[in-house]
Design goal:
By secondary structure, the protein is of the alpha/beta class. The protein has 2 domains: about 35-240, Rossmann fold, CATH 3.40.50.300; about 240-345, Magnesium chelatase subunit I, C-Terminal domain (Helicase, Ruva Protein, domain 3). The chain has helices spanning about 1-15, 15-40, 50-60, 75-85, 100-105, 140-150, 185-190, 205-215, 230-240, 245-260, 280-295, 305-315, 320-325, 330-340, and strands at about 65-70, 90-95, 105-110, 115-120, 130, 155, 160, 170-175, 195, 275, 320. Strands 2-5-8-1-9 form a 5-stranded parallel β-sheet. The chain has a two-stranded antiparallel ribbon with strand order 3-4.
């Protein structure tokens, strides 16, 4: 009893600086495993370091990712490799116009022998779910997936089933081919923590991609580096990463500038934005910045973390007017202008 009281008193005597130093040591120790995970993924995925970092940020911050890019940029391979390296369950759902909600979440099947309904779980019951070309499925199917993303549970009949932890949805959409698609409404897109826009690899990376895919041995095999329980432990550390009040205010100013740009000396943006970012943008920007700091071996968030991840958090949460489209401005351009205007703490 006395020993535990002494430990408590010692804990109370620690200064904020001491707590931050202890947290930094924990992060430095655990981050070795995360960096090993990144190296293992890089054995298969050539280039696309930004996509790998964003996948890890979403995983550490308990969010989901919407990937936009032309076919062939290793979107499917990336999440499959990530699940293999984490020793987790992976499932792929190819979204098509004839898909039904039950094809995603599962259904009840009547068993004649027992005269009972048996639960048949759908592909959503996995740690990593690839929703390939999510905009090819009608609204009902999209809603079934996005409800599961938000609630982390699925109701089949009168029973509610929790989804496994960790749970990450990577949804992809093709920016070119839009015929016969069902674009996601803004309210549904807002459920994604990050929207990552992929570009083509550079010339050197393309050569390495060819080399790794045409050799006799095929692609490198991925070793299992971490377990799902390790990811949950990392998440607890990410939540402890220190976020100063000045950084909080910086986040609020960036988000508010999309709603009332005239308050931040950006009056010309008023005519370009139909809807600004929701409070979910502020929450996700803070969480993603903490995860970014964790990946960079820091126990505290700095303004550069916010700037590094702001476009991915905000680009899908800003509605543009016809005037913006006429001027060939994207939501990313709007975020750039805001970041250049808001004073860095």
């Amino acid at each position: 009893m006395l020993e535990s009281e002494n430990n408590d008193s010692q804990q109370n005597r620690l200064t904020p600086a001491d707590n931050l130093r202890i947290l930094a040591e924990k992060i430095q120790f655990e981050n070795q495993l995360v960096q090993a995970l990144k190296r293992e993924i890089s054995k298969v995925i050539v280039g696309q370091t930004g996509m790998i970092d964003r996948l890890l940020i979403a995983l550490l911050a308990n969010g989901h990712v919407l990937l936009e890019g032309v076919p062939g940029l290793a979107k499917t391979l990336a999440i499959k490799t990530l699940s293999d390296a984490i020793d987790a369950d992976f499932s792929r759902i190819q979204f098509t116009p004839d898909l039904l909600p039950a094809d995603v979440t599962g259904t009840l099947i009547y068993q004649q022998k027992s005269e009972e309904f048996k639960v048949k779980k759908g592909p959503i019951f996995a740690n990593f779910v690839l929703a390939d070309e999510i905009n090819r499925a009608p609204a009902k199917v999209q809603s079934a997936l996005l409800e599961a993303m938000q609630e982390r549970q699925v109701t089949l009949g009168d029973e509610t089933h929790r989804l496994p932890e960790p749970f990450l949805v990577l949804a992809t959409q093709n920016p070119i081919e839009q015929e016969g698609t069902y674009p996601l409404p803004e309210a549904q897109i807002d459920r994604f923590m990050l929207k990552v826009v992929l570009d083509y690899p550079n010339i050197q990376e393309e050569r390495l991609i060819i080399r790794s895919n045409v050799r006799k041995e095929g692609l490198n095999k991925v070793n299992k580096i971490v377990k799902p329980t390790d990811i949950l432990r990392f998440r607890d550390l990410v939540k402890e990463v220190y976020l100063d009040e000045k950084i909080e205010q910086y986040i609020v100013d960036i988000v508010y500038a999309t709603r009332t740009p005239e308050r931040y000396n950006l009056p010309h943006l008023k005519a370009l934005i139909t809807t600004g970012c929701s409070p979910r943008a502020s929450i996700n920007l803070a969480l993603a910045a903490k995860a970014y700091a964790f990946l960079n071996n820091r126990a505290f968030v700095v303004p550069e973390d916010i700037r590094a991840i702001a476009k991915d958090v905000m680009r899908h949460r800003i509605g543009l007017t016809y005037e913006a489209e006429a001027e060939n401005l994207s939501s990313t351009d709007i975020v750039d202008q805001i970041l250049n205007r808001i004073q860095v703490p």
